[in-house]
Amino acid sequence: MKRAGTYSGILSGGISGKTGPHLLPLARIKKIMKQSSDDVKMISGEAPIVFSKACELLIEEITKRAWNITVQGKRRTICKEDVASAVITTDTFDFLVNLVSDSANSQESPRP
Amino acid sequence: MELGGNGGFHGYRRLPQNSSAGTKAPEISMEMPPQMNQTPNTNSVTDDTECTVREQDRFMPIANVIRIMRKILPPHAKISDDAKETIQECVSEFIGFITSEANDRCQREQRKTITAEDVLWAMSKLGFDDYIEPLTLYLHRYREYDGGERGSLTGEPLVKRAVDPGTYGFMTFPPVPFPMAPHHGFFGAPPMNGFLKDPSNAGPSQAAVAGIDPPHCKEQGLELLNGGGK
User: Considering the domain boundaries, does residue A32 fall inside one?
Assistant: First the structure.
């Protein structure tokens, strides 16, 4: 993964505002993509780059929603339950529902 | 503690492998399903370390995740460790979820390579429409930036200025002043410092630099570049 130096980092930040050094490591993204299914063969160079930004957006969205729940509860620390609530109350995060309830209850077997 | 069968998502596939772990390296490599051969197995380590390595491979680095979270949270907000880990897991699940869908599409269309467009299509199909526009923009900018960098040093698509960057040997001159102290020289770029310290341009150039306010930098800077401060 190319790590832009300070100048080129600022350069790219100044031009595009957002591109430049990626916040998430591309090699790791690629690895996780390959793990998702046995028959993932080849991945174009740009796909991890799209994912790096998409994951950033996802993290931001979950965090924002979780924080809203934290604030409603008059607290300042986002806890796992806030994250779980944020996931459960958002339709697009349905695929994460099992994950957050498994995280919360690691002893239980998953519901069929 | 098998947690497989979560609608086919990948996250827990490593567990069956762990249950058979505890054997020596050669046996592991023979027993593992083909998919596992793709992951970098440090077969020479113990079970615990192997679990750790695989754990790291499965998720985004937590420091990066935290950085992104803190970007949008107010300064006084705190995040519990298990919340951080949960989000870390969510990210990996998201990648797998989208990739599966994109991969299915590729297979239907008999293509072998998952492209950025496939990823975007899968996101749109799975309900992440809101992400499509910023991602498309991001991808276009990336293509412009990266294509410009590799193509030539002129950086023309990026900055439309009458500058001859070939003289200075780097891409382009940023149109936006960024928060670097002016007294560090020209936007803190070493090559420019060298240029400014050229005795033939010493007097007026340095005075101009010294007096530069960031909002005026770009115009004065370009003048200096072009004429050396007339």
Answer: yes
